[in-house]
């Protein structure tokens, strides 16, 4: 198949998932055409079946807000016409689903019917999409998609709760390439971070309010009172300055390091002993799944779709949002006893394997085939 994938090219989970999906489909022999404004961060090197089409948004003195959605729809039309595209798969509804609707209408006038698949990822529904400035357009373009998918049952339920739509939503869980993440930790690197064998705790996110990074710090400080530990904070975003100043005044400030945005999560995660994700909401929590694939137990909140991936008391623990005392107590339970820790590690890997790329990507492939056959 010739598949066009539209996504955000950034570190966000939706862009990461879309890029990994495209790479996996390309390995299976499909031709993948990424359409976005910048090379996706996880794309990596050259692949004979992968093509990247940059959306250019010409500026003009009249435009206070350059019309990205118009440029995106026009690029979709161009790519479909010139690369014999069979379907458009857009990740994150805003503005990709409405741009795809526009492209589809233009192509229909030219006598081409191109199916549009929209995958909902989370904030496009639960935060941004339900805002009334966007919701009429999001509702319409979801309804007009040929197939609508969500990355968890929770996100499916949230979509029906916030939007007046009747379109069936198929749940296809996010996935991870376990082989890539399940590596031996780089010992020299581990030693550099934790020279005296301290436990290494990692949090990775876009440092937005919804991630509650302040709870990561509070939880870490409680853990560090009981167990020698180091905290690595990966990623960047609006809350980072606030979090940095919060850590400057705390007792364990020398044990907390900000690493900024990192592309090679598969090298960093294996050095961790625990992953913290205390988010206010996660439709899925791809970062937690990648941690589990690296054999790292997860301490998280029980919000959104997290209970669909984490088995409480097995590969990690979940607490109510904001209950940092419970999160710390659970972390200590896992970390203080080597035998318990070994069991949680092994279970984390087992659980990640259920979401392995090899189990999930064929679900997308079968759905594409079905929609093309239905034409
Ligand atoms: O978490 C974010 O703020 C980024 C966001 C995105 O759209 O890139 O992530 C969402 O999609 C990911 C991939 O499906 C999910 O794993 C995240 O849980 C989800 N984030 C939220 O729901 C807050």
From TrEMBL:
<feature type="domain" description="Glycosyltransferase subfamily 4-like N-terminal">
    <location>
        <begin position="11"/>
        <end position="180"/>
    </location>
</feature>
<feature type="domain" description="Glycosyl transferase family 1">
    <location>
        <begin position="189"/>
        <end position="348"/>
    </location>
</feature>
<dbReference type="InterPro" id="IPR023881">
    <property type="entry name" value="Thiol_BshA"/>
</dbReference>
<dbReference type="InterPro" id="IPR050194">
    <property type="entry name" value="Glycosyltransferase_grp1"/>
</dbReference>
<dbReference type="InterPro" id="IPR001296">
    <property type="entry name" value="Glyco_trans_1"/>
</dbReference>
<protein>
    <submittedName>
        <fullName>N-acetyl-alpha-D-glucosaminyl L-malate synthase BshA</fullName>
    </submittedName>
</protein>
<dbReference type="Pfam" id="PF13439">
    <property type="entry name" value="Glyco_transf_4"/>
</dbReference>
<dbReference type="InterPro" id="IPR028098">
    <property type="entry name" value="Glyco_trans_4-like_N"/>
</dbReference>
<dbReference type="Pfam" id="PF00534">
    <property type="entry name" value="Glycos_transf_1"/>
</dbReference>
């Amino acid at each position: 198949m010739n598949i066009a994938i539209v996504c955000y090219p950034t570190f966000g989970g939706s862009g990461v998932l879309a890029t990994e999906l495209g790479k996996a489909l390309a390995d299976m022999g499909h031709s993948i055409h990424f359409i976005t404004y910048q090379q996706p961060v996880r794309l990596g090197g050259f692949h004979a079946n992968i093509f990247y089409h940059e959306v250019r948004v010409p500026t003009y003195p009249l435009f206070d807000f350059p019309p990205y959605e118009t440029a995106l729809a026009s690029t979709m039309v161009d790519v479909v016409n010139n690369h014999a595209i069979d379907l458009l798969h857009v990740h994150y509804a805003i503005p990709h689903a409405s741009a795809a609707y526009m492209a589809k209408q233009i192509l229909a006038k030219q006598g081409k019917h191109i199916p549009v698949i929209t995958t909902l990822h989370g904030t496009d529904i639960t935060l941004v999409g339900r805002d009334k400035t966007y919701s009429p357009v999001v509702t319409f373009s979801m309804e007009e998609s040929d197939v609508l998918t969500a990355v968890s049952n929770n996100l499916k339920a949230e979509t029906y709760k916030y939007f007046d739509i009747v379109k069936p939503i198929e749940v296809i869980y996010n996935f991870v390439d376990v082989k890539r993440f399940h590596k031996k930790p780089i010992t020299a690197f581990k030693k550099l971070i934790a020279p005296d064998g301290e436990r290494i705790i990692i949090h990775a996110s876009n440092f937005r309010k919804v991630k509650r990074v302040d709870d990561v710090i509070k939880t870490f400080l409680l853990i560090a009172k009981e167990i020698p530990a180091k905290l690595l904070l990966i990623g960047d975003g609006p809350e980072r300055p606030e979090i940095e100043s919060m850590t400057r005044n705390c007792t364990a400030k020398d044990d907390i390091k900000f690493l900024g945005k990192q592309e090679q999560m598969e090298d960093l995660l294996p050095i961790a002993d625990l992953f913290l994700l205390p988010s206010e909401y996660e439709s899925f929590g791809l970062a937690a799944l990648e941690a589990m694939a690296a054999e790292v137990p997860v301490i998280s909140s029980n919000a959104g779709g997290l209970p669909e991936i984490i088995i409480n008391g097995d590969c990690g623990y979940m607490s109510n949002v904001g209950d940092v005392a419970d999160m710390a107590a659970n972390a200590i339970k896992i970390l203080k006893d080597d035998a318990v820790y070994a069991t949680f590690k092994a279970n984390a890997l087992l659980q990640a394997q259920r979401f392995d790329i090899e189990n999930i990507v064929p679900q997308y492939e079968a759905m594409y085939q079905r929609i093309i056959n239905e034409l």
